[in-house]
Design goal:
This protein is about 80% helix and about 0% strand. It has 12 helices and no strands. The chain has helices at about 5-20, 25-40, 45-65, 65-80, 85-95, 100-115, 120, 125-135, 135-150, 155-165, 170-185, 190-200. The chain has a domain at about 135-203: Serine Threonine Protein Phosphatase 5, Tetratricopeptide repeat (Alpha Horseshoe), CATH 1.25.40.10. It starts with 6 loop residues before the first helix and ends with a helix.
């Protein structure tokens, strides 16, 4: 069992975890930042502890839609502890939100190479991303449809299927998927942008 973080750092991390669970992502990020500064000031030589704090703060950035800082923190976490699952998956999600699909694909594939049983990387919507990168649009639609059968509120599946339909020039189906997504997450920026693009194709 790994030793506990130094008391005050551990308390800050625990408080950050609680804020994150409460949906207070900015507050959680601030607490993780304080814990990082304190840990670094103490001259900690334990990269795993520092990596976890970077990864936790990255999760806050991702929830707040700050994908650039999420990627930076995930990269810092991975520099300390290479091939850590959570930073890889979070960075993949951030790359995807920024429409940097080849980079997201690389991170997902890396996760699968580490552990091909990881559900988050194997789920249909994530596999669909790989199909999108490879321009296998019909396969992407099939994977997303299966993911939505299992979870009718899977935002990633709606988004990726909408992208695939758009690439197949089935703009009506794409528009319908985007609207379904926005009913679940009205402030989803990438979906709003995609709807504008599809709407131009429809008109």
């Amino acid at each position: 069992m790994a030793p506990k973080l130094p008391g005050s750092v551990e308390e800050l991390r625990a408080a950050g975890n609680q804020s994150f669970r409460n949906g207070q992502f900015a507050e959680a990020a601030t607490l993780y930042s304080r814990a990082l500064r304190m840990l670094q000031a103490q001259g900690s030589l334990d990269p795993e502890k520092e990596s976890v704090l970077f990864s936790n703060r990255a999760a806050c950035h991702l929830k707040d839609g700050n994908c650039v800082d999420c990627i930076k923190d995930c990269t810092s976490a991975l520099a300390l502890v290479p091939f850590s699952m959570k930073p890889l998956l979070r960075r993949a999600s951030a790359y995807e939100a920024l429409e940097k699909y080849p980079l997201a694909y690389v991170d997902y594939v890396t996760v699968l190479q580490i552990d091909d049983g990881v559900t988050s990387a194997l789920e249909g919507s994530s596999r669909a991303l790989c199909h999108l990168v490879l321009k296998q649009y019909k396969e992407a639609v099939k994977d997303c449809t299966e993911a939505l059968r299992l979870d009718g509120r899977n935002v990633k599946a709606f988004y990726r299927r909408a992208q695939a339909y758009k690439a197949l020039k089935d703009y009506t189906s794409s528009f319908a998927d985007i609207n379904s997504l926005l009913q679940i997450e009205p402030r989803n920026g990438p979906a709003q942008k995609l709807r504008q693009e599809v709407n131009r194709s429809l008109n």
